[in-house]
Specification:
The protein is an alpha+beta fold and about 650 residues long. About 20% of the residues lie in helices and about 45% in strands. Strands 31-30-34-28-27-37-42-39 form an 8-stranded mixed β-sheet, with no helix packed on it. The chain has a 7-stranded mixed β-sheet with strand order 5-4-8-2-1-10-12, with no helix packed on it.
């Protein structure tokens, strides 16, 4: 029985509450059938009235093209505005809302509607137009819509701004840079007190031409005024552009602000002002040029700028701080060289290198290979512009095979650029001695003059003490020289024997002479220890002036016979150079070159030159001799030693 009455109770309660709330509710629960497609067109909506009252009138018209229950959206967002008292074609129509906004349910046909729109907030108002609406117009008192009337509105947010003056605090930083184009940067921070910022105006007093504005909702510049539409309670505005006047005034009417005035290095700037100058470290503006000056200024202060264009000297466009040229020369006459430049370049587009022979590789930076190009028979490369660059070039040349005694012209690469320090390292086979290097100081394996003098004094004196004869002394010096070249250890043993003979020579049978003989022995031994080892150290370090010669013992490469390559590979090969030192290498046009490493032949001679230029290019040559010459010297030394021994046996 209770279930039977419950069936009638639910509809009755629904009708009762619907009748009770019909007059007071601004939105109703509407259930519609959305299974059928509906189409409508909203031609126009007009929002009008006094914005200060927080209540506006909304009117519009359109047409439901198809469908009996069409949801026609008007405005949103429901949490900020209230749409009520909706009349359609003179009759009251219920209104409801969803996540898109307020809507009316209309039948097919044309319609005109009106409604009241109430705003919850006192500041800026944001309304949402779900659309589509062909035209949204505004006719407001004490307010306006940012960006004005809207056309083709669909899912669009519109900000309504109040016309009342909002109390705000502004803090500005103004930068003026004089150059080919005078540019400015304004950074202004706005902050309101309890309300939205709204609209503000900046007076363009310095002939400003606006290029960009950021941090605003909308801006317009006309008649010397920059109108900014700001949203929220805080805004950070950046304005950039160019200006034309040399008399500068502050754009903001109130307060003191940071000002920075500067010019590029090509202009001499003079500033006349009554503003307070501050240190740049106290300024909130970062300078772009080194002659910048900082100030604190208000709208009552003035700046008068006087500019003078300075004359310019021609600038050094490129230079090489350090050049290293390594050249490896084999016995067969192959000469493989690597040139490395540490350079700075700001104005040279191409670099020309006079590198003998055939270029094999070029790279800029760290192993960044570039294609090899030439002009007028020289290597001609694009020269990257940088303050700290590296250029690496490898080239190959040949000469006749090295002979017993040879004068070798080193294939040094030169350029038109000035080189502060040029280091040339000649890599030679270890079985050659470098007698002299021409074109630079040092670079020789011969002992220095000081070493030769010490050697002659020490061993000439010992020979003369052994036998007070000039001929014997000369033979003893020749014998000692050969012994030193063969083995310094044997030379030390020979010196001990010579010292013993000298001591024995000066000892007599009388007892009073024993003390003198002992003293002589001590003197000779001290002479041996101090002078000989000092001499050995002196010979071990050759004085090369500004260069060094070092000997590194390393195994040479071995030649291995290989089978002949296929014909397809032979077609892409080339012979570099001529004679015994020529190389048969694979080549291909259009690909980047690969780097080839220099061989370690066992010996290197390094010379250093300074301030190398085009008028005085590097020309390095070396005089070398094969180490076979030591064998005739050994023979001469043995003969001299035998003659010395024969002379010592004579009474």
């Amino acid at each position: 029985m209770e279930k039977k009455y419950a069936v009638f109770l639910v509809p009755l309660l629904f009708l009762f509450f619907s009748f009770l709330l019909a007059d007071d509710a601004s939105a109703e629960i509407i259930i519609i059938n959305q299974s059928k497609p509906v189409f409508y067109s909203m031609e126009q909506m007009v929002l009008s009235g006094d914005f200060d009252t927080n209540k506006l009138s909304l009117t519009g018209f359109g047409e439901v093209i198809s469908g009996d229950t069409a949801k026609v959206y008007v405005l949103g967002s429901p949490e900020d505005i209230l749409v009520s008292n909706v009349l359609v074609n003179g009759g009251v129509v219920p209104v409801s809302f969803d996540d898109r906004g307020y809507y009316m349910v209309l039948d097919k046909g044309k319609f005109k509607f009106s409604a009241d729109v109430s705003f919850r907030s006192r500041g800026q108002a944001r309304i949402y137009v779900p659309g589509p609406v062909n035209e949204v117009k505004f006719d407001l008192l004490n307010g306006y819509a940012i960006n004005g009337d809207q056309y083709g509105a669909y899912k669009r947010e519109i900000i309504l701004q109040r016309s009342e003056k909002v109390a705000m605090l502004s803090e500005g930083a103004f930068k003026y840079s004089f150059a080919e184009k005078n540019t400015f940067t304004y950074n202004i921070r706005y902050r309101s007190f309890g309300k939205s910022l709204g609209q503000t105006v900046i007076d363009l007093k310095n002939g400003e031409n606006i290029l960009s504005v950021s941090g605003v909702k909308h801006y317009s510049a006309e008649d010397g005024r920059l109108v900014l539409e700001l949203t929220g309670e805080e805004a950070n505005v950046y304005v950039t552009g160019t200006f034309s006047k040399n008399s500068i005034r502050m754009p903001l009417p109130e307060g003191r602000h940071h000002v920075l005035i500067e010019s590029d290095p090509e202009r001499k700037i003079s500033i006349e002002t009554d503003a307070e100058e501050i240190d740049l470290s106290q300024s909130s503006i970062s300078p772009s040029y080194s002659n910048a000056r900082g100030f604190l200024a208000s709208s009552s202060n003035f700046f008068k700028i006087d500019l003078t264009v300075l004359q310019k000297y021609p600038s050094l466009a490129a230079s090489v701080s350090r050049a290293v040229n390594k050249i490896a020369i084999t016995e067969k006459g192959s000469m493989l060289a690597e040139l490395t430049y540490n350079y700075a370049n700001t104005g040279v587009d191409y670099i020309s290198l006079d590198a003998p022979g055939t270029p094999l590789y070029a790279g800029t930076g760290y192993r960044n290979a570039v294609k090899l190009t030439k002009d007028a028979g020289k290597l001609y490369l694009s020269f990257p512009k940088t303050q700290s660059g590296t250029l690496d070039v490898i080239y190959f040349d040949t000469r006749k095979p090295l002979s017993l005694v040879d004068y070798v012209e080193v294939p040094v690469a030169n350029t038109d650029l000035i080189i502060t320090q040029a280091q040339t390292q000649v890599i030679l086979p270890e079985n050659y001695y470098v007698l002299w290097t021409f074109g630079a100081n040092g670079g020789s394996e011969l002992p220095s003059i000081e070493s030769v003098i010490i050697f002659l004094l020490v061993f000439g004196g010992i020979g003369y003490m052994l036998k007070e004869k000039t001929g014997f002394t000369m033979m003893y010096v020749v014998y000692s020289l050969g012994l030193y070249i063969f083995s310094p250890l044997l030379l030390a043993f020979s010196l001990l024997v010579s010292a013993a003979l000298i001591v024995k020579k000066h000892i007599s049978n009388k007892s009073m002479k024993w003390m003198l003989a002992g003293a002589a022995a001590i003197v000779v031994l001290c002479l041996f220890v101090v002078v000989f080892f000092g001499f050995i150290m002196q010979l071990g370090t050759f004085n090369m002036g500004s260069s060094t010669a070092s000997v590194n013992y390393a195994s040479d490469y071995a030649m291995v016979e290989e089978a002949a390559p296929p014909m397809a590979m032979q077609k892409s090969r080339a012979v570099l150079g001529s004679g015994e030192g020529a190389l048969n290498v694979p080549v291909r046009e259009g690909v980047l070159p690969v780097k080839i490493e220099l061989p370690a032949l066992g010996k290197s001679v390094t010379v250093t030159s300074h301030m190398v230029n085009k008028e005085d290019p590097l020309k390095i040559s070396v005089l070398i001799v094969r180490n076979w010459v030591k064998y005739p010297l050994y023979l001469i030394s043995i003969i001299a030693g035998l003659l010395c021994l024969k002379e010592l046996k004579k009474r």
